[in-house]
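Severity: low
Component: inverse-folding endpoint
Summary: output formatting inconsistent between runs
Steps to reproduce: submit the following structure tokens with default settings.
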């Protein structure tokens, strides 16, 4: 069972590793759903922890539709992230019609070279999640899809997540369930969906506040459930 935890600072990353996270999603702008962190933060986190780190590449929070200038920014960011070494990426892009922007996806995957990829919750705004799943399954670099099943929270989207998980069986692509999961609902959610990867942010922070630091006790409670 893989536990991915959002980190927005070096201290977050160190606490996450110490308290049982298997992987870190490194972002800034947590209240905006996550934006690309600074290169200095990326480099420091990579040096501070041994567990895998996936870095958000998202230039703005206006939408998941990106202009040619946005694409240039994302490509430059990927180059900088690659230079830090031993990192992976979190990306997601849509066309105005709600389909995966495969043209931009291919460009970013090429720039990423061998780095593994999580397709983030842009997936929850696709016009057809099963169609999007089929598209993303064509790209071996994309190992995870972060989703709440198209609903505000993963527990609300549990039925859809269960079906997405079923369709990923036997594939290298995995469903990474996130949003609204906590120690209070995790057991029942896992039984309902059979997912093997979960993503937590606010639920493992002090008072559940996304702007506060990770709370070791909350994180350890989640880890104990997964174990």
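Observed output (run 2 of 3):
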């Amino acid at each position: 069972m893989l536990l991915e935890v959002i980190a927005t600072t070096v201290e977050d990353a160190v606490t996450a590793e110490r308290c049982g996270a298997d992987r870190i999603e490194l972002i800034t702008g947590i209240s905006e759903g996550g934006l690309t962190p600074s290169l200095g933060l990326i480099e420091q986190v990579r040096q501070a922890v041994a567990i895998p780190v996936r870095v958000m590449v998202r230039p703005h929070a206006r939408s998941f539709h990106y202009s040619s200038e946005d694409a240039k920014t994302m490509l430059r960011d990927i180059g900088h992230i690659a230079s830090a070494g031993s990192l992976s990426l979190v990306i997601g892009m849509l066309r105005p019609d709600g389909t995966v922007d495969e043209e931009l996806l291919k460009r970013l995957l090429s720039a990423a070279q061998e780095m593994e990829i999580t397709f983030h919750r842009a997936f929850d705004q696709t016009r057809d999640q099963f169609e999007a799943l089929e598209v993303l399954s064509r790209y071996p670099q994309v190992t995870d899809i972060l989703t709440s099943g198209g609903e505000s929270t993963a527990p609300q989207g549990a039925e859809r997540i269960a079906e997405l998980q079923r369709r990923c069986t036997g594939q290298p692509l995995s469903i990474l369930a996130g949003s609204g999961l906590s120690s209070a609902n995790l057991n029942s959610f896992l039984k309902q969906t059979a997912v093997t990867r979960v993503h937590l942010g606010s639920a493992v922070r002090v008072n559940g506040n996304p702007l506060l630091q990770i709370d070791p006790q909350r994180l350890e409670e989640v880890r104990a459930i997964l174990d």
